[in-house]
Amino acid sequence: NAGVTQTPKFRVLKTGQSMTLLCAQDMNHEYMYWYRQDPGMGLRLIHYSVGEGTTAKGEVPDGYNVSRLKKQNFLLGLESAAPSQTSVYFCASSYRLRQPYEQYFGPGTRLTVT
Amino acid sequence: DQQVKQNSPSLSVQEGRISILNCDYTNSMFDYFLWYKKYPAEGPTFLISISSIKDKNEDGRFTVFLNKSAKHLSLHIVPSQPGDSAVYFCAASDPGNQFYFGTGTSLTVIP
User: What is the pLDDT of residues A91-111, one digit of tens each?
Assistant: First the structure.
């Protein structure tokens, strides 16, 4: 099993450009999440999905959109990148109702917006 | 406002001694708590968890303690090993399955 994979690993964008981050999981998990990690801020939830075709907002959703067209994939889109979106982005997945509810994380995508 | 707080950014411990990492939270609706470990350039990996109906959970060298009245949990690592050197994140889950993470504590175990 590959677990949770993220594409790309690194990206540099100019202000105003758009991009999509792809997350894929092969564990048949129902829940998937997108986080961003910034220095001194820990991980903050951007959006999450409780199943195929459903998404919900997390703590910091502004400036991002997501889609979950297939159960194994969760896409994070930046329509018009801003320097404030420079961060490390982590995707995670988990079973829906199975303790200990742990999330499995991908290796991260380092995004720089200039 | 940060609902999960880890007030110690870093901790150094001698190999073989006990490491104690602390975490405080503000939301009384949190019903599940987890600890994650993170190495540089990798995603966090799950370490141990505890339900709000318990006050202790043990897994090998790792024990998590929960004090609901104080809204405080701690992770004990005994004995500490150099391979435990990493950043440790505390996380809490609400009934809606949203997770809230602390800012992390960087643990260094000195050989």
Answer: 999 986 656 578 899 999 999
CA distance A12 to chain B (A): 17
Longest dimension (CA), chain B: 42
Strands B19-25 and A104-105: unpaired
The answer to whether the Cα torsion of A54, B34, B5, A22 is positive or negative is negative
CB contact under 8 A, A42 and B98: no
The residue among B99, B101, B106 with the most chain A CBs within 10 A of its CB, best to mutate, is B99
What does chain B come to in residues?
111
If 0-12 CB within 10 Å is exposed, 13-18 middle and 19+ buried, where does residue B64 land? buried
* B residues 77-106 lying closer than 8 A (beta carbon) to A: 89, 91, 93, 97-104
Q: Which residue is listed with tokens 């758009």?
A: A18
What is the per-residue DSSP string for chain A?
---EEEE-SEEEE-TT--EEEEEEESS--SEEEEEEEETTTEEEEEEEEEETTEEEE-SS-TT-EEE-SSTTEEEEEESS--GGG-EEEEEEEE-SS-TT-PPEE---EEEEE-
pLDDT in tens, A40-52: 888 999 999 989 9
A101 closest CB neighbour out of B6, B41, B93? B93
pLDDT at B82 over 80: yes
* Nearest chain A residue to B5, by CA: A42
